[in-house]
Amino acid sequence: MQKLKTTSNNLIVSDKATISIDGESYDFPVYKGIEGDVCIDIKNLRSLSEGVTTIDRGFKNTASCESKITYLDGEKGILRYRGYDVEELAKKASFLEVAYLLIFGELPGKEELDKFHDDIVDNSIVNDDVKKIVDAFPSSAHPMGVLSSLTSALTAFNPNDVSLDYVRSKEGMYETIVKVLGKIPILVGWSYRKQNGFPLQYSMKIRNLDYTDMILHLLFKKPNDEYRPEKPLIDVFNKLLILHADHEQNCSTSTVRIVGSSHAGLFPSISAGISALWGPLHGGANQAVLEMLKAIQEDGGNTKKYIRKAKDKEDPFRLMGFGHRVYKNYDPRAKIIKAAADKFLKSIGVDDPLLQIAKELEENALKDKYFIDRKLFPNVDFYSGVIYRAMGIPPNMYTIMFVLGRLPGWIAQWREMRLMKEPIGRPRQLFTGSAPRKFKSKK
Ligand code: ACO
Known about the structure:
Blueprint: E1 5-6, E2 12-21, E3 24-32, E4 38-40, H1 45-48, E5 70-73, E6 78-81, E7 84-85, H2 86-92, H3 95-104, H4 110-122, H5 128-136, H6 143-157, H7 160-163, H8 170-196, H9 211-220, H10 231-243, H11 251-260, H12 266-278, H13 285-298, H14 303-311, H15 332-347, H16 353-366, H17 369-373, H18 381-391, H19 398-419
Antiparallel strand pairs: 1-2, 2-3, 3-4, 5-6, 6-7
Helix pairs in contact: 2-10, 3-19, 4-8, 6-8, 6-12, 8-9, 8-19, 10-15, 10-19, 11-12, 11-19, 12-19, 13-16, 13-18, 14-16, 15-18
The structure holds acetyl coenzyme *A.
Residues 58, 250, 281-283, 285, 310, 318-325, 374, 376, 379-381 line the site of acetyl coenzyme *A.
């Protein structure tokens, strides 16, 4: 049997792939991931055969990096964080434990977790001047746009974030990480409180609360109100945050990595990730799903009509919350969220007709040839909005709730990228524009 070689990066070279261009053949190493994934390294293609590059629109089959954080197999519906099955984590872990696991690679012991929690709380205070920026936004501003701007603005109040040598300063990196995990929930809280006319809270130093419970307080605690969220609410929110915590190289995470690859700081990189998540094809789908379910309800609840619309190529309507770039099987997160939605609504005695419409849409889609042939299943966003609605969160804040969950994943991927000294992200292109021409003014 052939002895496997490794690269200086410890990648296992399992084979070689040959590309022939104009009668010349070139060999490239083939790597094997620990789950058996096979990956051809074409990095040297251009230097071997001048001017030759590869194209893969939307990076449908291109690995942009090597990572040890999250493993997912879209064909089998598997999702693991640092080797732990997401279903088990959602059942047994706290969101902060999962955040620590994703970022630092191992589950924290009690002391490590307590310190992480306290450091986040201590670094959560948001400067009063940031509030002036918030006041300048029109009340109609979408919370995602506001959050992205404020996150970037936080750089001005944390100047180390742009000047720090993150690769050398372990302490500096840790401090920035706890600042992000402390301050962004405060800003998210502001967004909800402003819409509801509650006074703003400037720090997490409310009471000694667990991180998930604390976020609920930052959102819902009214002045002079002894707010104590019920256990089913804390449980379901903890689950949602864990299920959103990372998803390897998706659109927003790739954005965070590519912005950070220019050595921009963590705050601006996260700000870019928030903007990428906002779009309805990505995290913005959770708001779009709720709006779609409401529109179907107002139109008489005829789900079959909307299945027909989704299949009609002349109709721009898409079944939001359905389909996924990598899952060609049921998204494991959607399965857990659907069950959690059922349980949570029952526990608080809510019978939401939108949940029934969602279930009917799913049932009809899953037996329809169009959806079967294209392997389209509900994704993480299909049922999450129903839970947020029952929690009393307005639809324009659903994607911001996704941000809270995804923060540890973005941070973990950004940290890994910096520590591995990844080169600046800079794809190639296939130029199809004008041939050279001489300037002649048209004035
Ligand atoms: N409704 C109807 N048809 C769909 C849907 C949908 N939701 N999703 C995909 N299709 C069809 C496409 O029209 C295409 O059909 P064709 O082969 O006849 O042209 C085929 O399925 C493949 O779809 P693509 O758009 O090429 O797949 P891609 O991987 O590029 O897109 C995406 C994935 C963006 C998630 C897509 O499925 C979609 O738009 N879904 C709705 C939005 C959504 O729920 N996004 C959240 C994703 S999860 C997340 O990001 C957190």
